[in-house]
Amino acid sequence: MNERCNVHKNPEAQELPVNQGFLSSKRCSDSIWKQVLVISITICLVTILCGGFLARAKTQQKPPECLQVACPDSWIGFQGKCFYFSVDVKNWTSSQRFCDSQDADLVQIETSQEMDFLLRYKGPSDHWIGLSREHEQPWKWTNGAEFTTWFQIKGRGKSAYLNDKGANSASSYTERKWICSKALLQTSQWPQMRQ
User: Fold this and answer.
1) Is residue 26 part of a domain?
2) What is the tally of structural domains in the chain?
3) DSSP 69
4) Do 165 and 91 share a structural domain?
5) Are residues 157 and 86 in the same domain?
6) What is the tens place of the pLDDT at every residue in 16-66?
7) Nearest CA among 73, 55, 93, 85 for reference residue 171
8) How far apart are CA 162 and CA 122, in angstroms?
């Protein structure tokens, strides 16, 4: 025999025998409590499972600053380096000072792909690069390394620059645009641009 719990707006309107009413009421009460218990347990289990998945997902994710590798504003990334193409003009020494203030150097060109990239992005203007020499001495990069002459530098000047045809040289006091470079680092390691 399957009994249902009937809920009436006016419980006095229904007359049940004393024993049946009590049993029926007790069965309804037990049935409701079982449903409440099942629903409560289900909600607790779902909450625990969701919390576990969220906690695991958070521990497996790395913070965004660890994942982002980029160049500072106004710099362009290429092959693990960041390059800054100036808008202003300065002499070779002042150009190197500017690069140094950005934790960089006048560009040291290491590959033919890098040379092609620099020639493409520099535009029509001449730009200082990180090569210089003393009178009748070999060319050296700003870090002191001797130039291996893998590309030709025309002219008799003491400081090198890029023009539309490649590398040339001029006196250090001539004002030109310049190119700085530095290694590509995580964004949290970049200082703010100083001018």
Assistant:
1) yes
2) 2
3) B
4) yes
5) yes
6) 455 555 455 556 567 787 777 777 777 867 778 767 655 665 555 544 444
7) 93
8) 8
Q: Which domain holds residue 141?
A: 76-186
Task: Indicate whether 25 and 100 sit together in one domain.
Answer: no
DSSP run (H or E) holding 64: helix 64-67
Q: Are residues 96 and 127 in the same domain?
A: yes
Q: Is 68 within a domain?
A: no
Cα of first residue to Cα of last residue in the chain, in angstroms, is 90
For residue 129, count other CB atoms closer than 10 A to its CB. Answer: 27
Q: Per-residue b/e over 12-32, b at no fewer than 16 CB within 10 Å?
A: eeeeeeeeeeeebeeeeeeee
Q: Tokens 């965004």, residue?
A: 64
Examine residue 70 and state whether it is found in any structural domain, yes or no. no
Q: What is the CA radius of gyration of the chain?
A: 38
Q: What are phi and psi of 131, to 5 degrees?
A: -110, 135
Query: Is 193 part of a structural domain of the chain?
Result: no
DSSP state letters, 152-168: -EESS-SEEEEETTEEE
Q: What is the pLDDT of residue 149?
A: 85
Rounded Cα distance, 57 and 109, in Å? 43
Whole-angstrom distance, CA of residue 132 vs CA of residue 143: 11
Q: Which residue has the higher pLDDT, 172 or 69?
A: 172
CA gap 186, 18 in Å, rounded: 80
CA trace torsion 171, 174, 178, 183 (10° rounding): 40
Unique residue bearing structure tokens 């625990």? 48
Q: What is the CATH number of the domain that holds 139?
A: 3.10.100.10
